[in-house]
Amino acid sequence: MKNRKSSKLLALGLVFALGLGLSTAFAAVSVAPATTKVTVDGKNASVEAYNIDNGNNYFKLRDFAANLDFGLTWDAATDTAAIDTTTHYKPDATQLITGNWAPATRARIQAVIDENAGKGRYVVFDFDNTSVIFDVQEALLVYQTENLIFKIAPEDMEAVLETGIPDLDKEMGKSIDGKTVTPATLVADLVSDYTWIYNNYSGMKGDKDLAYIHASNEYQDFAAKLRFMYNNLGDYFDHAVSYPWVTYLFTGMTPEEVQELATASHEYWAGYGRYASETWTSPIELPGETGIVSASYTTGVTFTDELVDLYHTLMANDIDVYIISASPIDTILAANECMGYGVPEDQVFAMRNKLDENGRYINEYDYDWGGEGMYAQTQGEGKSTIITNFIAPKYDGAGPLIVFGDSAGDWNMMTDWMKSGDTVLGVIFNRYRKPSSDPIWEGSNEAAQTIGDADARFVLQGRDENKGQLRPSEYSILLGQTEEVLVRPAS
């Protein structure tokens, strides 16, 4: 509904202006059905109304909530109705809100929920670009960089940045001014920049405020090249190198400090209000060994009502919910907590680093968490390994009922238990993936051909990246575009 917020406020005004207290209604001598007509956005609405002979009119608040789509709860213990204009109307905790779900996708998810409620099943969610629109860790990297929240000593930064990179001299393209870019050249420039920042910024060892630091060539070079390195490690090396690399920037922090940082980032970007691609370019005055580079990132994230409600609806049907994410564990735990997903902490799996004797992170992945060698990287095939080692044993070895994902990193866990019949549905958030580089295209293509089928194995959910919200369609609108798209052609 357009202008949903103003419509909700209008509903509240109507409720109070018409004197709708229950005590007034019951105190009346006689009550008769009313012929009052109510319209919403110019259309007739189904609202039950009564005339009371003391001059008041009575409407059911639930009817207004349903027509204007605002949250409504009832506390029997205190005999109190509560209105929440920040949530959707939900008549039954076991049923999904309509929201912006694609109708066929919502119907298929709800059907699987209804059929399996209370049967001891579980589902698995990816987080970035699935449970949230856009990537919370990529957004956190921008927030961390802009606010210079690091606990790494300058003399340790080189080792941190080089962690896990098998070939520091591998070419990663050319700079804008024609230099060969390698991990080694990037690390050299980043260490130099960081050392200057560390010695000058008042939040570290210096006496200059953040505005002064932001205006410096050293900061601008550091921001652009750090982001460039993050963006390109995934293209030039295996994901087993690139995914854990960003977690090493938390070296020296406690888990509590990372969660505090992540919470601040989530709340900042959730309220940012603009979804766009921005670019950092390093200054020509400080080319360094790497030269001049540019790196892009996306602003804003959305923790949608539909997904938060989906989590809660599954739980209300006694279907257990797990998260397996390629982002760092504290980033996901912070989002789970501050944005109200409500998943128990021991049912969240994500990238984990080892802690030192003082409880601070070091730049080493913790493959031994939960058992020697059992904790795989939580991406790609590793997500299925996590299910096999940590989740399935709680359910007599059974795989997940539904898997929710968006890309290649989710394809294994979405399909590995389909042949056995354990996984009956893969829900794909439509990012218009390429068949040449992302196997989830196969599921997207099948979903596009089976829209509305009662036994569809895959369903698509569209989103509008320019607005940061889901669309009531399988078609998506990509960031910076205006035309809706479904599935890329096979060739």
Strand and helix layout:
Layout: H1 4-17, H2 22-27, E1 31-33, E2 39-40, E3 43-44, E4 49-52, E5 57-59, H3 61-68, E6 71-75, E7 80-84, H4 103-116, E8 122-125, H5 136-147, H6 154-162, H7 183-200, H8 210-214, H9 217-236, H10 239-245, H11 255-270, E9 277-281, E10 294-298, H12 305-316, E11 320-328, H13 329-338, E12 348-351, E13 353-355, E14 361-365, H14 381-391, E15 402-405, H15 408-415, E16 425-429, H16 440-449, E17 458-461, E18 463-464, E19 469-470
Parallel strand pairs: 8-11, 8-15, 11-12, 15-16, 16-17
Antiparallel strand pairs: 1-4, 2-3, 4-5, 6-7, 9-10, 13-14, 18-19
Biggest sheet strand line-up: 12-11-8-15-16-17
| Count of individual helical segments | 16
The percent range for strand residues is: 15-25%
Q: What structural class results from the helix and strand content?
A: alpha/beta
CATH fold name of the largest domain, please? Rossmann fold
Distance separating the two termini: 38 Å
Q: What count of structural domains?
A: 3
Largest beta-sheet characterization: 6 strands, parallel
CATH architecture label of the largest domain: 3-Layer(aba) Sandwich
Which blocks of ≥5 consecutive residues have pLDDT under 50? 1-28
Question: What is the name of the CATH class of the largest domain?
Answer: Alpha Beta
Mean pLDDT: 90
> In angstroms, what is the radius of gyration?
26 Å
Number of strands: 19
